[in-house]
Amino acid sequence: MVEDLKSLDDLKAAVAGTPAAAAPVAAPRQPQRDALGRSYATGKRKDAVARVWIKPGKGNVVVNGKPMAEYFARPVLQMILKQPFTVAGVEGEFDVMATVAGGGLSGQAGAVKHGISKALQLYTPELRGALKAAGFLTRDSRVVERKKYGKAKARKSFQFSKR
Questions:
Q1: Distances from the Cα of 85 to the Cαs of 3, 82, 101, 110, in angstroms?
Q2: Residues 3-34 pLDDT 10s
Q3: Whole-prediction pTM value?
């Protein structure tokens, strides 16, 4: 019996008691766009939360009503925002409108990047593989640890005095 099975899928189907042809096949993902032809996603990092809309355009990025270069003045933060487009190979093809709140500029840049990545894969599902392989669809869940009572900070103790 095991000798005439061609692949691992055949083996799994035989163990499950179903023919290999009846194995479930995932339906292809459908683009999710609103009436205006935009895709929306929420991105998060640290305490920052970004609401991101993308639509076909000339590559304009507007964050909280300001151009990207004005809101994120440091070149490193601008580079972070451009990473999803570079990995997906669609630089200059989409306009981005984002509102971001909470955290600092670095966390906000990471949140917008996460939102852009999620919105891109909703707009064009074929880009999901490249974005997922780069790790852009995973939320960076590291947050500041809370302060505990009896401690100076989250983990630091007060100075010990023997006498």
A1: 47, 6, 22, 14
A2: 555 666 665 666 666 555 555 777 888 888 89
A3: 0.80
